[in-house]
Amino acid sequence: MSNNSHGHAGGKKGGEYGNKKKHAKNEGNNGGGAGATDRRFKTLPASEALPRGQAIGGYIFVCNNDTMDENLRRELFGLPSRYRDSVRAIRPGLPLFLYNYSTHQLHGIFEAASFGGTNIDPKAWEDKKCPGESRFPAQVRVATRKIYDPLEEDAFRPILHHYDGPKFRLELSVTEALALLDIFADKDDA
């Protein structure tokens, strides 16, 4: 909407511009508010994202006991819409991990089988209040690299970047991703 009001600003007479501007203000309080909210959910706060310019080395997706089977059966991982831009940075082959917050275990090793996107499968984790819409629209198709026994939280938590107490960043630096891959491999050798 803001594009339309900017487009009309230069070429319209004063009265028409004034009406458009007033109309745009009203939209800003109603429809534009949704746009502002949507913008807020597209990008992660700095504390939850890798520093600008740092390459993504891997990604942790989150599930619970209720959603884990669907993640694995569909070979699709998803997160809420506020992770949309972050998930779009995922490229095929990127190491992925699945954290089950019901059990506090990290499962792996998976890899991206597609580019990250939005609503790759809108029926996955379908929102019962909004049929046909996913509760987790920031999605990526996954393939299994190798299944290891899951890591307990004490084994992987020290590697991850933490913010706001126990929360950890889902985007992994190259160093963090390699360290997680090593822990899984070392566990397999033991």
UniProtKB/TrEMBL annotation:
Pfam families documented for this protein: Dev_Cell_Death
User: Which segments constitute the DCD domain?
Assistant: 54-186
Q: Which GO terms describe its biological process?
A: response to endoplasmic reticulum stress
Q: Which InterPro entries match?
A: Dev_and_cell_death_domain, NRP-like
Looking up Gene3D superfamilies in the UniProt record yields:
ph1033 like domains
In residue numbers, the region (Disordered) covers 1-39
| Listed name of the protein | DCD domain-containing protein
